[in-house]
Each structure stands twice: as C-alpha cells, then as structure tokens.
Write a structure and sequence with these properties.
Elements lengths: L1 H20 L2 E8 L4 E8 L2 E8 L7 H29 L1
Antiparallel strand pairs: 1-2, 2-3
Helix pairs in contact: 1-2
C-alpha cells in the first residue's frame, strides 16, 4: 500500500501544479460513502481528462496500483504539454 500512497501523493501534487501553473482546473475526490475515487481536469468547461475508480477499498492492490499509475502518467502528459505550450509562447 506504500506504493499506492506514493501514487496518491503524486496525483495530488500534479493536480495542484496544474491548478496553480496553468489554466486547467483540477478536482480530486475520494467519496467514502460511494467507495470511489474520482479525478477531473478541465480547461474552461471542456473536460480534458477524467477517471473514476469504483469499489476503491475492495479493489485488488495490483489493479489499484495499475489504475493509479495510469492516472499519474496521464497527468504527466498533460503537464508536459503545458510546459511545451509555455516554451512555445515564450
């Protein structure tokens, strides 16, 4: 579970970075009553990325790690495109 905690931290850090350093709006929600984890990235009203992990606490640890790693990779790609746009503009 330590690896999954590190992935959560990375997701939160990347979401915060996108919120502060770009015009993207990020939302990360863990809903204990629904047993789900949801992340959404928007640019204005347009949804850029979203992922919903259902049955969060009952999910196999390896599958959860795979899903969280996928989220991190998508956020890193978005961050890289923001960096590329910033360099192109400057």
């Amino acid at each position: 579970m330590d690896e999954n905690l590190a992935l959560f931290n990375q997701i939160n850090s990347l979401s915060y970075w996108l919120l502060k350093e770009s015009d993207f709006k990020s939302s990360v929600t863990f809903d204990a009553s629904d047993d789900s984890y949801f992340i959404s990235i928007k640019k204005g009203v347009e949804s850029i990325y979203k992922h919903h992990v259902e049955d969060f606490t009952r999910k196999d640890a390896r599958l959860l790690k795979f899903e969280l790693s996928s989220i991190v990779n998508h956020l890193l790609q978005i961050k890289a495109s923001v960096h590329a746009d910033q360099k192109r503009i400057a």
